[in-house]
Amino acid sequence: MDSMTQAALGAAIGGAVLGRRLGRKAVLIGAALGTLPDLDVIIDYGDAVANVTQHRGFSHSLFVLAGLAIALALLSSRLAKARDISLARWGTFFGLILLTHPLLDALTTYGTQLWWPLGAPPVAWPHVFIIDPLYTLPLLVGVGVALISGRAARPATWGLTIACAYLVLAMGARQLVETRIEPTLAERGLEQAPRLIQPTPFNILLWRVTVADGARYHEALVGVFDGDSAPLLETYARGAELEAAALDSRRGQRLDWFAGPFLRYEVRERDGRDTLVATDLRLGFPGFHPFSFTLATREGDDWRPVAVSEQLAPAGQDRRQALTRLSGRLLSPEPRLCTSDFVSRQWLVGTPGSC
Fold it and tell me: Which residues form the signal peptide (predicted)?
């Protein structure tokens, strides 16, 4: 999630746990520690692929943050004896603030390395978009009232409760969407295919389903209020003929570890040379994928890995128009909204007649 949300979550937890003892200080300490794991963004790992795939790494590890919480609890119990706060209470305070950060991040699509340094792939259980005002607003209101009134516990607890209830609604919405997409996937023989179900930007009413299918992938938009309307599954190429060349490079292997089968490959001309580019299809929205990386350049019949990978700017499409059309699709399946309206025709393999 965005840093403002993480700060608000930490502040709300701080106020709920120790607001009666520490007042505003509990809120401010929570806000500071709530954003602490995201400071890894200031680390430059040497190139674009490394920077993106190392983010939410060691600083989001449950092992690292649990150790830090224990250390802070022990230190606080020694230095703040006059507060008469038990070690267990300090542990709850620091533990919840620090550990909820990566756990909330894991509810988005990006992927969070909860089990670093074990080498397990990033964890992603997408239930909320990376920015969701309806989740953040109750936290901000609760924290704001806590800071203004000085009575931190009750408003912080209410804000936290409402935000948690929103996550429960998101889980229910996702389960409903999964139930609705299953028959469509079964008709296409895609029941076992890797799938990614995630909310579209800024809401939990309209969901995007992406299904990896060998050299192709499929996209569908499924709404909570779609009723009996069957999902429209659109099919795209993902440049699989270039996948072997991409995986010959260390950075290509790293991206494959990071994004799994949800990568698209293409050749773009850069500085007069054919350049192999990989795009993470999970992030953003069809036609608006922000993460594309250079992997190799063509030399004769071979591909030579680039010395330093670069992240390429996305195509300059009208995001405002796309968001307007998405907002019009939230409460009803009509008018139809097709992902192919936003994706370059070069990738299109097939769409339903209504698209």
Answer: none
Query: Does residue 251 contact residue 309 with C-beta atoms inside 8 Å?
Result: yes
Q: What is the pLDDT of residues 261-316, one digit of tens each?
A: 999 999 999 989 999 999 999 999 999 999 999 999 999 889 999 999 999 988 76
Percent helix, percent strand, percent coil in the chain, to nearest 5:
50, 15, 35
Residue with tokens 């609760």: 142
The Cβ-side half-sphere exposure at 179, using a 13 Å CA radius, reads: 10
- CB within 8 Å of 34: residues ≥ 6 apart: 6, 7, 8, 9, 10, 11, 13, 14, 97, 100, 101
Amino acid identity of residue 23, one-letter, is G
**What amino acid occupies position 277?**
V
Yes or no: say if 199 and 207 are a contact pair by the CB < 8 Å rule. yes
Residue 271, class by beta-carbon neighbours within 10 Å (0-12 exposed, 13-18 middle, 19+ buried)?
Answer: exposed
Burial of 120 (C-beta count, 10 Å sphere; 0-12/13-18/19+):
exposed
Give the number of other Cβ atoms within 10 Å of residue 84's Cβ: 8
Q: What is the pLDDT of residues 186-207, one digit of tens each?
A: 999 999 999 999 999 999 999 9
State the DSSP code for 164: H
Per the CB < 8 A criterion, the answer to whether 351 and 345 are in contact is no
CA within 13 Å, CB half, 34: 27
> From the CB of residue 252, how many other CB atoms can be counted at a distance below 10 Å?
26
Q: Are 141 and 133 in contact (CB under 8 A)?
A: no
Q: 64: number of CA atoms within 13 Å, CB side?
A: 16
Which residues, in sequence order, are bridge partners of residue 273?
270
What gap in Å lies between CA 159 and CA 285, rounded to an integer? 30
